[in-house]
Design a protein that fits this description.
The structure holds two protein chains of two kinds. Chain A is an alpha/beta fold. Chain B has a domain at 7-122. Chain B has 19 helices and two strands. Chain B has a two-stranded antiparallel ribbon with strand order 1-2. In chain B, helix 7 (98-108) crosses helix 8 (114-125), helix 8 crosses helix 9 and helix 12 runs antiparallel to helix 13. Classes of the chains: A alpha/beta, B mainly alpha. The interface between A and B is large, with 56 and 63 residues. Chain B: Residues 295-331 are annotated as: Disordered. Chain B: Interacts with PCM1. Interacts with TTLL1, TPGS1, TPGS2 and LRRC49; the interactions link CSTPP1 to the complex TPGC. Binds to alpha-tubulin. Chain B: Belongs to the CSTPP1 family. Chain B: This is Centriolar satellite-associated tubulin polyglutamylase complex regulator 1.
Chain lengths: 732, 331
């Protein structure tokens, strides 16, 4: 039948391995059914349907007792009854299923010659009569192939008929055969039947071929309990139904129908082969309820996931399956997933499964599993990361709020102490060395993740991301040279910029290659804060997110950055390339500031500013629990070098608020002292001055008095001389 | 060298009044701060340099706010430094917000209080629309008044409030440090009835204040001039008039006239030199877009209240203690 329909894809390609056994209960040694004619598909071998049927109905030459050449009579055992067909002598003496077409043609045409279709008295139903000779010759079978019948003829006196063939007619309704109660084989291939009916009396029917009709629904099979083969291919059936009682059915062909899914298969306890090719099936269920199913053909359907056919994995009997022409077969995981899940399979898509393939599949599956676990782990980590970031963000918001309302907010202390409590969670970090054994694809994805409640440190490729102020502590950790060298981007989020400033020297040491700094939610509010970045070794890119950094709203900020960090020759600011014009503009705007700062600043103050900067750095470093003096020295040299490079800008530095306030305190102390000291000095000086002035005032008078006294003394010369002499003698 | 008033006061008070003590204290303080470094190049050298810088007005650069506002001379010097350093920003034509100006101020004085900047912005913007953009010159002149006469304006605000509420100002003892009182604006009803106070009455009070006031205040004659033009005026109206009065600007002596605000040939020259140093830059600098928009209307004025730096350096006579800024501008 399929041969006639010319549907080559209705069956598996040639070379198919024959089934190892034919069910014992049904061994037929009948070579030819007329419709099994490969002749019309030349060079194509037997199509699948023909072979399937042949395999069922024909016992191949495997049995030594019944060799084809000698076989003249074939045994047809139908259940308990054993029937013998006598075949035409011209039946080929070889098992030429493939080569018998010529003979068959002769046979059928001859048979046709002997049949007389006599019009009955009723105009619609012809009455069939065969000659008695014919009857004797083919007592069990009747072929009415290609008779242009539009209705089933009334077949009279043929109650022994076992085989009835109506292939290639125009019959629209099955009728007038209810009297043929011994019928075993009914072939209605290629007609125009719209409904299965008129079969209720044919209780012994074993093979029912209804391919290429117009049937929309499987129905009226209730009494056909011994049905062995049911062929409904090429119809318009949308649903599998009313077959659950067919417990002897071994072959069910529903190819080329309109099925959208497969289920409702329970009860088909003997089904070994199920053909569902060329439907629109998206999912398959219930197949695990078929204890004998060996071959399942699902080619050319719409199956796209393994989950939709996962019941197949539970079937223990299934050995042969096809999925070709489904979306699923295009997937990279297709083969190994199927093989991994269906260990019982021997053939997949017509190809024998080798051990090698199976091993490969299990390896791939293992990998897949690992990958899945890994991705699960990663998604867990990601989720954790998200939570922590949220937590940090909340804390940050709280903190910001507190800062703005510091006067009114009294619970600041509480949350402070809370901070401390949560901060002491230990940090775990995974360095790339530890994850190195994993899939190479993974290493780039996520290398290290260090997590605590209030802050997060993450190394992702070349990016070091710090969330929350606690994360800054990570700079004290011993980073591996490899990791540290790889990090070129450092991103700060939810950290007070002033806190970042204090770790910049550490950053410079630990991550010497960091070129790109990112700031988000860091409370950058003033241009002068950018001064702090000048002490770094190199900055190529700067990204300041407007979120939480009000300074970005200033029109001048970019130019100021360019101006102040001009010694870095920055490439990009906030993702935009720095142009020559930007540089000129920056210089134009702030060049004078630098000039004034460098050339007009008194020497003593310059020293104190630069000294401060050095001291400050020194102190930050000392705070890192007294590092090796070598580093400190180097650092010192660094800052000196830096000063040499851009002296006119070095005076523009930034001290954090705390540090500055501390300094102001210090100054206040000194001022107090100076005030007292100066006061004393000045008082002393003014006192001396006053005395001096008083003396100046008195002096002329005093002088006059002195002179007058002297003059008065020497007015009387004689008495004065006498006095003098007296004094001299007294002395002696 | 010594003014005759000197004899009217005891020496100590005189020195204090003329802020000599302030500078001496500060000099010693600075010396203490960096004694190791300074002793290397000589104490005498340090003092010379210190008082020279005080004369030149460069001593306030990057100093703490408490020092910057300590003397009128420091204030004037700071105003001038601010103008010189950021004149280019104004020249560029950028309109900036109050916060941005504040940032610029903080570049010169890291702990400059926001409050002062806010008050100055309020003079320009007349209201609480504090996010508005201001031109450089508007801000600068308003800031000058606010910063230089800060204490005086506090007192004026108090007097204004008293006048508004109908008290007899002559009986009122003017608080000199009643910070923030002027923020209590007249309520809406009062304002709509009769805005401001009567100018003549206001002037009487101010004259009285100027006599008694120990901080610097604008010359009474100029205040009179400002007030004589109008019948009534509001507090902010008064401030705006003060800030726009060019006589007051001249008397204060820190900034050039408004017309010359963008003009500073010495520094412009310096800037060109700096621009030429930008690495990888060709001669495009001199033909830059701004060369054309330079305000070329006024030639450098000879009688500018501030001499260029190199002139000031030659005059050594002033370093002997008479550092009051008026002395300096008179010589």
């Amino acid at each position: 039948m399929a041969a006639d329909s010319g549907l080559g894809d209705e069956g598996p390609p040639h070379g198919r391995a024959p089934p190892e056994h034919t069910p014992a209960a049904f061994s037929i040694r009948l070579v030819s059914f007329p419709h099994l004619r490969p002749a019309e598909v030349p060079n194509c071998g037997p199509t699948w349907e023909s072979i399937r049927l042949s395999e069922i109905l024909l016992l191949p030459a495997a049995s030594p007792k019944s060799r084809w050449p000698q076989a003249e009579g074939y045994k047809f055992r139908a259940g308990p009854a054993e029937v013998e067909f006598k075949l035409n002598k011209e039946t080929p003496s070889f098992p030429g299923r493939l080569l018998q077409h010529d003979l068959e043609r002769n046979y059928s045409s001859r048979q046709g010659d002997h049949i007389n279709l006599v019009s009955s008295s009723m105009p619609s139903f012809p009455i069939l009569q065969r000659s008695s000779e014919e009857k004797i010759l083919y007592s069990d079978r009747l072929t009415l192939e290609r008779q242009k019948l539009t209705v089933c003829p009334i077949i009279d006196g043929e109650e022994h008929l076992r085989l009835l063939n109506f292939q290639h007619n125009f019959i629209t309704r099955i009728q007038n055969i209810s009297n043929l109660q011994r019928l075993i084989f009914l072939d209605l291939y290629d007609n125009q039947i719209e409904e299965i009916s008129g079969l209720s009396t044919l209780r012994s029917l074993r093979v029912l071929l209804l391919g290429k009709n117009r049937i929309k629904k499987i129905s009226n099979l209730e009494n056909l309990k011994s049905l062995d083969v049911l062929d409904l291919h090429g119809n318009q059936i949308t649903k599998i139904e009313n077959v659950n009682h067919l417990c002897d059915l071994r072959v069910l062909n529903l190819a080329r129908n309109l099925l959208s899914h497969v289920d409702n298969l329970n009860g088909l306890d003997s089904l070994t082969e199920l053909n569902l090719r060329h439907n629109q099936i998206t999912f398959v269920r219930d197949v695990d309820n078929l204890p004998c199913l060996q071959r399942l053909f699902l080619s050319f359907n719409n199956i796209s996931t393994f989950e939709s056919v996962c019941c197949l994995a539970d079937s223990t009997s299934l050995s042969d399956i096809t999925f070709d022409g489904n979306p699923i077969a295009q997937e990279s995981w297709y083969k190994h997933t199927i093989l991994q899940n269906m260990m019982q399979l021997r053939q997949l898509d017509m190809k024998r499964i080798t051990e090698e393939e199976r091993r490969m599949a299990s390896v791939v599956a293992k990998k897949e599993e690992e990958k899945k676990r890994e991705s699960h782990k990663q998604s867990l980590l990601k989720e954790k990361k998200r939570l922590i970031i949220n937590n940090v963000a909340r804390k940050w918001d709280l903190q910001q709020h507190r800062i703005t309302n510091i006067a009114t907010n009294q619970d600041g202390k509480d949350s402070d102490s809370q901070d401390h409590c949560q901060n002491d969670g230990s940090t775990i970090s995974a360095f790339p060395e530890e994850t190195g054994s994993l899939d190479s694809g993974l290493t780039s994805a996520l290398q290290g993740l260090s997590v605590t409640d209030t802050h997060l440190v993450e190394v992702d490729g070349d990016t070091l991301s710090l969330y929350g102020s606690g994360a800054l502590e990570c700079l004290d950790r011993n980073w591996s040279v490899q990791t540290a060298g790889m990090v070129t981007t450092v991103s700060f989020t939810f950290i007070e910029f002033d806190e970042i400033v204090q770790v910049l020297p550490k950053l410079k040491i630990k991550f010497p290659n960091s070129l790109h700094l990112k700031f988000k939610e860091t409370n950058l509010v003033m241009l002068q804060q950018f001064n702090a970045l000048a002490e770094l070794r190199r900055v190529d890119q700067l990204t300041v997110d407007p979120q939480g950094n009000p300074v970005v709203n200033f029109t001048l900020w970019k130019y100021y950055v360019l101006f102040r960090l001009s010694h870095f020759n920055m490439q990009k600011i906030n993702g935009t390339e720095v142009t020559q014009n930007d540089m000129i503009m920056a210089e134009r705007l702030f060049g004078i500031l630098a000039h004034v700062a460098s050339s007009e600043l008194p020497q003593y103050h310059l020293i104190s500013i630069l000294g401060d900067a050095r001291k400050k750095q020194f102190r930050y470093l000392l705070e890192t629990k007294g590092k090796k003096p070598g580093i400190v020295n180097e650092e010192n040299n660094d800052s000196k070098r830096l000063v040499g490079e851009s002296t006119n800008r070095a005076t523009l530095n930034y001290t954090t608020r705390d540090f500055y306030n501390e300094k102001l305190e210090e100054i206040k102390e000194k001022k107090k002292f100076c005030k007292m000291y100066i006061e004393d000095l000045v008082k002393e000086a003014t006192e001396i001055n006053m005395k001096n002035e008083a003396l100046q005032k008195l002096w002329p008078q005093m002088f006059i008095e002195l002179v007058r006294d002297a003059v008065m003394e020497i007015r009387n010369k004689n008495s004065y001389m006498k006095l003098c002499l007296q004094q001299i003698t007294d002395q002696k | 060298m010594l003014s005759p008033e000197r004899l009217a006061l005891p020496d100590y008070e005189y020195l204090a009044q003329r802020h000599v003590l302030t500078y001496m204290e500060d000099a010693v303080c600075q010396l203490l701060e960096n004694k190791e470094d300074i002793s290397q190049y000589g104490i005498a050298r340090f003092f010379t340099e210190y008082f020279n810088s005080v004369c030149q007005g460069t001593h306030i650069l990057f100093r703490e706010f408490s020092f910057i506002q300590a003397t009128p001379h420091n204030r004037a010097s700071f105003l001038r430094a601010f103008w010189r350093c950021f004149r280019t920003v104004g020249k560029n034509g950028d309109l900036l917000t109050m916060r941005e100006y504040h940032c610029l101020l903080q570049l010169l004085c890291p702990d400059f209080p926001l409050e002062l900047t806010q008050k100055a912005a309020r003079i320009v913007l007349m209201d609480d629309a504090m996010d508005c953009l201001m031109s450089f010159s508007d801000f600068l002149f308003a800031f000058q008044i606010q910063f230089y006469y800060s204490e005086f304006l506090e007192s004026v605000a108090a007097i204004y409030q008293d006048l508004l509420s109908g008290k007899n100002p002559n009986t009122v003892i003017v608080p000199t440090s009643s910070s923030g009182q002027h923020r209590q604006r007249p309520t809406l009803g009062e304002a709509s009835m009769l805005e401001g106070v009567e100018a003549s009455l206001f002037y009487q009070c101010l004259e009285n204040l100027c006599d008694r006031h120990k901080y610097s205040c604008p010359p009474p004659a100029l205040v009179k001039e400002v007030l004589s033009n109008v019948q009534r005026l509001t507090f902010y109206g008064f401030l705006v008039a003060l800030s726009k009065h060019h006589g007051i600007n001249q008397a204060l002596g820190a900034l050039p006239d408004k017309g010359d605000l963008m003009h500073d040939p010495a520094l412009d020259e310096e800037l060109e030199r700096l621009l030429a140093q930008i690495p990888g830059l060709v001669n495009s600098v001199t033909a830059g877009p701004e060369a054309s928009c330079l305000p070329a209307r006024t030639p450098p004025r000879v009688g500018s209240p501030w001499r260029p730096l190199h002139h000031a350096r030659k005059v050594d006579a002033e370093s002997d203690g008479s550092t009051e800024e008026t002395d300096e501008s008179e010589t």
